[in-house]
Amino acid sequence: MFELVFPFFLIVFFFLVIAILWRNKARKYISSGTVASAYDAWTQDKLLERLWGEHIHLGFYPSGQKNIDFRKAKVQFVHELVKWSGLDKLPKGSRILDVGCGIGGSSRILAKYYGFNVTGITISQAQVKRARELTPDGLNCNFQVMDALDLKFEDGSFDAVWSVEAGAHMNDKTRFADEMLRTLRPGGYFALADWNSRDLRAYPPSFFEKLVLKQLLEQWVHPNFISINEFGNILSTNRNSSGRIISENWNIYTNPSWYDSILEGIRRPISILSLGPSAIIKSFREIPTILLMNWAFRKGLMEFGVYKCRG
């Protein structure tokens, strides 16, 4: 009986979540300006930074292990992507572009541990301001407000281009790839990680999955999701790439992040309480979307894609 009743209540729960989220579309993607506004707000209220530290991305859990500190897993993710993509082969002083740098967590690791000279760009003025505040003097990081679809750098300016969980906010994935690869020098290294959907043309979503995807798009200012293979094809046909794109699905390594994102509020309650009553309301607002993300990634509706290639 339990086996029959539990799935029913699970489905009812998710429909209730969707009904709640449906009422609030304040973060629906309209333009790049809505992305900037959302990240300005997230940065200024400091809730995500207090809860998750300087890295507003998923963590890396070897073989899906769950008994790892969430913040350490986020740092480990950076090191794993560096190693997997080959950036660790670059000499100290190499010029790195961090596209969608957030408040600079990954940029500082790339500069501190690998000796790179890092330029981080984000569309959020508040993120640039906070990134500069968090960066110690003497660390080779600089941060600029810039649209990733219109990079103000000369062709071949960087030895490597790095981007983590930024592409889902781009309404033109081809232009996104074009701009990054244009700024990469011939022979340089490209490393990207992003949220992808499964191939929705080959495997169309069910009615319920369509509702889930709608909420994942509208709650966190995403214009659209595409599959790992679709974005891999965009990269491989770009005139500035070597044509040999390697991609993988890292769901197994990153999925524990979703529950940890919620559990951090229990482990570090003072992080929320110290910001006042409004922070409590804001933190509860994020939980339904996080639970939907967890469900979508566990079921394979969403995939965590990583990509590497040479310029």
Describe this entry's structure for a reader.
The chain is an alpha/beta fold and 311 residues long. Helix 1 crosses helix 8 and helix 11 runs antiparallel to helix 13. The radius of gyration is 19 Å and the shape is globular. The protein has 13 helices and 7 strands. Strand 2, helix 6 and strand 3 form a beta-alpha-beta unit. The chain has a single domain, classed as Rossmann fold, CATH 3.40.50.150. The longest helix has 23 residues. Strands 3-2-1-4-5-7-6 form a 7-stranded mixed sheet, sandwiched between helices.
Poorly predicted spans:
1-6
Termini separation: 57 Å
Which secondary-structure class do the elements indicate? Answer: alpha/beta
Total tally of structural domains: 1
CATH hierarchy: architecture: 3-Layer(aba) Sandwich
CATH homologous superfamily designation: Vaccinia Virus protein VP39
Q: Do you know the CATH topology? A: Rossmann fold
Helix content: 40-55%
Order of helices and strands: HHHHEHEHEEHEHHEHHHHE
Question: Which CATH first-tier class would you pick?
Answer: Alpha Beta
What strand line-up does the widest sheet have? 3-2-1-4-5-7-6
Counted by DSSP, the helix tally is 13
Radius of gyration: 19 Å
Strand content: 15-25%
Chain-averaged pLDDT? 91
Shape: globular
Question: What are the main properties of this structure?
Answer:
single chain, 311 residues, 16% strand, disordered N terminus
In short:
With 311 residues, this protein is an alpha/beta fold. The protein has helices spanning 2-22, 32-45, 47-52, 70-85, 105-114, 125-134, 173-182, 207-219, 228-236, 251-254, 256-267, 269-273, 277-299; strands at residues 95-99, 117-122, 141-145, 158-164, 184-197, 246-249, 302-310.
